[in-house]
Amino acid sequence: MTSQLITLLHHGGAALAARLAPGAAWHRAAGTAGTGTLGGHGCAQRVSDRESELRALMSMASHDLKNPLAAVTAHVEMLRADYGSLGADFQRDLTAIERGLGRMSRLTQELLDYARADQPLNLGPASLDDMVQDIISDHVTIVGTARVVVAGTLPTVVVDAPLLRHVLDNLIGNAIKYTPAGSVPEVEVRADVLPDGAIRVEVADRGIGVPAADQLKIFDAFHRCANSSGYPGTGLGLNICQRIIERHGGRIGVEDNPGGGSRFWFTLALLGRPGQQ
């Protein structure tokens, strides 16, 4: 059983490496190229085309990992059920494997989400109030002690509902997750109408906050804040949120929450604004 598990892990990792190696090499080359290499409309188009290819590659690589991950997880569950009475060393090893599987599973899902963020928008009316209440119910069911409140009534907007739900789920989930150990998560969600008629949505918390040096970088792919090392994450979630919001013609940002914590915000442009596609 153990040899099968190791073989499955090896094959899953090898498949991911083989899939992503060409994209990694291209990114290294693009990052070191001079302006003479990347200048001009033709090259910009090639970069755009290549990025589309890389997103498709990540989607395929993530799909390739799903079955091996599911198989390894099933084997670990069988090992724990069949040999759960073995010593502490065995239990510790199984727990370490489960943690590794959890990290791989999160990365696989976020690679899929990263690729899906550029899918064609399916716009329609969606109640932010209903969406946020559903998300709160999901997270409070898991966390239990979190205090998440909605200030006022959230409006109905014209958006791609599944994509916007992904943004709100990420922001609310982060607000709950990045709370100091021993503290009860406190989160407030609100929405305001701006003078131009656009909507500004805010998710504020009393968590560990975002250091000033990280606030401009936090939406970069794979960036993780200096104070987040004790929390699980891949560094892709907020980059995906940014891409979704920008595709809706809006903006997203973060600022300090007066009294402690962070305040993440995003705007939703009116239907038909430039940037919606």
TrEMBL record:
One example GO MF annotation: protein kinase activator activity
Ion transport in keyword set: no
Cleaved signal peptide residues: none
EC number assigned by the record: 2.7.13.3
Subcellular location: Cell membrane
One GO BP annotation of this record: osmosensory signaling via phosphorelay pathway
Provenance organism: Actinoplanes regularis
Enzyme class: transferase
Main location: membrane
Sorted UniProt keywords: Kinase, Phosphoprotein, Transferase, Two-component regulatory system
Protein's UniProt name: Sensor-like histidine kinase SenX3
